[in-house]
Each structure stands twice: as C-alpha cells, then as structure tokens.
Fold this protein.
Amino acid sequence: MNSAVLPDEFNALMPFIAWALPTERERTIKRLASSMDELNGFYAAAMARLEAIVAFLDREPLEQMSDKNKPLMHLMLSLVEISNIVELYKRLDKFDGMHPSRFVSSE
Amino acid sequence: MKTIMTNKRWAEKYPALGTGPIETESCISPDYFERERELIFRRCWLNVGRVDEIPERGQYFVRELAVCRTSILVMRGKDSQIRAFHNVCSHRGNKLVPHERGACPGKLMCGFHFWTFDTEGKLSWVPDEENFFGLDKSKLGLTPVRIGIWEGFIFVNLDADGTQSLEDYLSGVATQLKGAPFGELARLRTYKVDERANWKVAIDAQNEVYHLPFQHRFTFPDAFILKDNKYTRLYDVNLYERHCVWSCEYNPDFKISPLGALLGQLDATKNAVRLNQMIGDFDFFLVFPNMVILLFKAPKADYMVTYNFWPLAVDHTIWEIRYYYPPADNTGTRLAQEYALCRLRDTLQEDAKAHEAIHAGLASRAKREIQLQDDEICIRFFHKVVEDHAGVAETLR
C-alpha cells in the first residue's frame, strides 16, 4: 500500500493518496485499473485544488523539492495522466490505440 | 504564417518524383529486408544517442543494432572524446559490456577471462599474458566504428570503408538545423514499443498530417485542421538528397481542454528555449534511414521529440520515442510538459495500433500498391530513397 501522506493543507485529498505514484508506468497501470467514476471523482477533487497546490509547491525550487512534498507532485502528475480520458474521451472504451502497457516507459 | 491551399503544389515543386502508386512488396519481402540490412543499415549514418547521455569521462552506453548484427559500445574516454566500438572482446569474441549503460573507473573488463580495455578502447591488461604466443596488445584494441556528432546527436556508420562525413551525409538537414539549441533541452521520458510491423510501414504512418483529423479524432480532433474546418495541409516541404522535412501550422482556433488551459496559465517558466531554426509550428524531419526529429512550437517554450525505428525483422520493429523539454523550473511548467507529453503519447498509441493493422493488410497481398495524395509526398520520397539504396523489389507472381 501507498504509505505517503499529504501536507496538512491538502488533507482533503487523502482519499486519493493511492494516486501519488512517482513513475508514468505506475500512473498508467493505476489509470487502466480504474473505473470512470473513480477517474471522474479524482479529477474533480484534484482540479479544484490544482492552483493552490502549484502555489504551495513553488515555495521551494522544483529541483530541491522536499520528500514530504513529493506525493503532492505525484498526485498532480496523476491528474494529468487521467485528464485525456476525463476531458476528451469521456468513456473508458473510446480510446482506440495500442494497449498502453506496450508503451514501455523509462523516466 | 499562412498555408497556401493550392491543390497538388508539392508535385509541382518536385515533379521528378511522379504521382503514381507505390509498390508494397518492399515492406513485406524478407529478401528485400536483407537487401535493406546490407545496403541501407550497414552503409548509412545511424543515430544511436545523444552526447548528454554520457556527460562524464568514462561513461558509456551500449546499443544493440540487431539490424546490423552487432552491438555498439559508445564511450567517453578519459580524454573526454566520444568513441564507438564493436562491443566485442578481442580475445574470444565475447560481448564485452553486457548491460545498457554505466561508468567505468578507467577500464572495462570482459567477464569471460578479464581481458581489460581502457576508456580509449586499447587493450591494457591480459591475465597470464606470458602463456600466450607473442601477443601484441597494441594491435588488439576494440574494433572502432566510425562515429560522428552533429548538434549533440551521436551517429555511427558500420561501413568501415565509407568516406562521407556525417555533416555531408545530413546535407540540408544539417544546414536547416545548424545551431539549434538541442543541448538546452533535457530528456523527460523514453518509450520503447515492440511492434509487429515493417519499419517503413511504421515510419510512413507518421510521415504525413493528412490522417490527423481522422485517425486522431479523439486525441487531436482540430489541432491542425485548416481547410473549411475539415482537412489539414502542409505549410512547406523540403527534400534534401535522402532526408526530408514537412512543416505545418496549428489551427489558431484549436480548442484546448480545461486542464490544458489552466496549466497554460500556471506554466511560469523563465527557461524559454526557442528553436528559431523551425520552418512551421510543427516540423517533422525524417533523417534517413530511421530517425525522426519532431519540433514543436509552444507558447512558453519550444520542445522536441525524436523517434528511432529499429528493425528486428521484415515484420518486427522497435519504435523508440524520446521527449525533450527545457528543464522545468517550476511546478506549473513540469505539469504542462507532462500534459503535452500524455496528449501526444495517446496519439502515438493510436498510430502504433495502425502500424500493425497496416502491416497485416499489406502482408495479405490483397493490395500490391498504395495510393498517395499530394500531401503524402514525403512517403513517396522516402520510398524512392529506399529504392535508390536497395533497388526495386521484385514482385511475387
């Protein structure tokens, strides 16, 4: 299980902490295992706090982000990861490409 | 920038290419693939990496060039110079470096009998040397491979007798992109895709914009549409000996998604790298035979994606995709880069599915030729260049 925690200011996002994943590979796997309702729920909650989170994280230089703030960054990268489905395709079965697991990524 | 909508203007610019259909046997014939192996991949300059993969002395990476039936070791020596070698030990032919990358503290040791080479490829130590028969270590260094570096891209050439320099080989591409600040971009992600498709089928599927509003109707429905809000057209095409570039402009009325719009506002980068060598908003350089450099203009900073298509067999290709952005200096920029990356990644997954579907279609031999329209001229040109190297495929009766 993901044992990450979020800064107190963003405690309300703790139900979505499983999305705090450091690599694209992990974020994609989680996306593929999620229902449309789960994606929509995470998207709505994360979008509502995006601006505040960016302002919060930018209090320190990106290159020197402290470990305690990294889960928040990874959560926002997951918001980006799911946004195509939520904003463009709107359904899990609409995208018609090669299975994403075959796009083997390295960071 | 204003794209001219005149019909059939590229055939007019390059009349020697003709306008007829293109044969498909060259994409499915195992015999033809063997000709490509010898006459294209073992003769042409091939991009195998970038200098920023090995910034420190003693760092190296290995590329398995299956199509050339060799493994290549690219290493930055103690003298800072980058060299390429066949990754083969001088003793009994064992693979010297069995992993993908690393850094050596001054020597590379073969795992078989610990024959040891320095960072310049010279044989420096042989265990129990006294028991050999007049071994001349000075003549038993690693076998060098011709190497060239252009704008930070490392190329090798397996033709030991070849004399053409990389710069000369790249011709108009080198001229057009001279001085491009690629070194100011950093690799954000690499994808490797194992595809059941011929390498040319995969390249062809990328090498035009005609398909965008159709195949990518869900991912990029309107980004490049110009004519009557229905079709795309190219802004410019240039053919350079073996290589080519096409450029197009973005649709100014492109509808951006809510997250894309918000991240556009939050992207506060001060690292506004500009690729002033670009021709249009989106340039696609096909560097013959198997490399693509894609350049994108974006509001805050320009960026680059590269493709390398590595054939394993006539119907089997590894598609490597690398994304390069200016190093993010704030959270909004990092997220905006990820957004652009994911958006494009999904379109490439649509393309990759098509590569396999098209290859299967051609392999059925239901169609012996394909039809091309004027904006698909770079596909026509690419196949002509392949033919110039490997000859015309003999069609099976």
About this structure: Residues 331-363 of chain B form the longest helix (33 residues).
